[in-house]
Amino acid sequence: LLGAEAEVAASASASSLTVSSVATGEFLPPEALKEMKANLIKFLPFKYLAKELTSQAEILKKVLRDNQEHFPVVFSQASHCLELVCGVEVKEVDPREHIYIMVPNLGLTCDVMLSSAQSMPKAGLLVLILSLIMQNGDRAPEEKVWGALSRLGVCVGSVHCVFGEPRTLLTHVWVQEGYLEYRQVPYSYPARYEFLWGPRAYAETSKREVMAFLLRIKERASRAFPPLSAEAAREEDEAA
């Protein structure tokens, strides 16, 4: 899901806000809804990195071209994607005027130095890495980290559309910023390496907050994708 949503976010970065207006009540093709979602995923990070508020009125005017009837579903899906991929949470600060602010998820500030024209926020990937470390006894072997990322389409040696080259991001950028530790496993020969939480990760968030976030995402996913039937689950296990 993270990989798929990241591709949507990347396509949004390259697309222009060109959805044409459709009269209220007129049928809107799925492709048009998908384009509106992609455009909104581009628009919201721009406002976040510019440290600006936005509103329903602004979104309708600049992104959805006054297609008010489609606002709830498009806004909900785009906000969920933004939280999962970019680590940015959309909060309503004025329910009467429907004004929104974007804040870093779990308090992580790794994107605060990005400019509005520089890059997509990447805190969502950092949350994933921190959770992998937790699930592996607070020290995740790098082969497990690279394996998990590759299943999401984030591969070492390849430049990802949203996250860039993952080895550089994880072993240099986030290590220098203090979010991760990357060190050799003691007494390993040939040398093996592992990831740990860095001091800045401990300062900005907590394991309890990360776990609560993961449970929230899992609950949403279970609602969106109902449990497989017994037969389908058996076929999936056999295929695996």
Automatic annotation (TrEMBL):
<dbReference type="InterPro" id="IPR041899">
    <property type="entry name" value="MAGE_WH2"/>
</dbReference>
<dbReference type="InterPro" id="IPR037445">
    <property type="entry name" value="MAGE"/>
</dbReference>
<feature type="domain" description="MAGE">
    <location>
        <begin position="33"/>
        <end position="232"/>
    </location>
</feature>
<protein>
    <recommendedName>
        <fullName>MAGE domain-containing protein</fullName>
    </recommendedName>
</protein>
<dbReference type="InterPro" id="IPR002190">
    <property type="entry name" value="MHD_dom"/>
</dbReference>
<dbReference type="InterPro" id="IPR041898">
    <property type="entry name" value="MAGE_WH1"/>
</dbReference>
<dbReference type="Pfam" id="PF01454">
    <property type="entry name" value="MAGE"/>
</dbReference>
